Amino acid sequence: MRFKVIRQYKQLLFMGREYPRGYKYFRENLHAGFKKNAGLTDVKEIEQKLKFAEYIEREIAALYYVRKYRAMKQRYYEKDN
What we know:
Helix content: over 70%
Radius of gyration: 17 Å
Largest sheet: none
Shape: elongated
Distance between the termini: 55 Å
């Protein structure tokens, strides 16, 4: 389980480099969230937290795609007035 948790932490940390509020803000909050759950020993609870982390990962990816889509739309399409 430890390997899965570390892998998930690194993946989220990698995704946070383009976070709108900055990498430092994202890293501090991510670290605090993982540290808060560091004492978990039940395998089912750890699996549940990992599933939640995967959900957060998908949400962050969706936010990045929306931001890129809006930037492209603003550049290439005329504004309706």
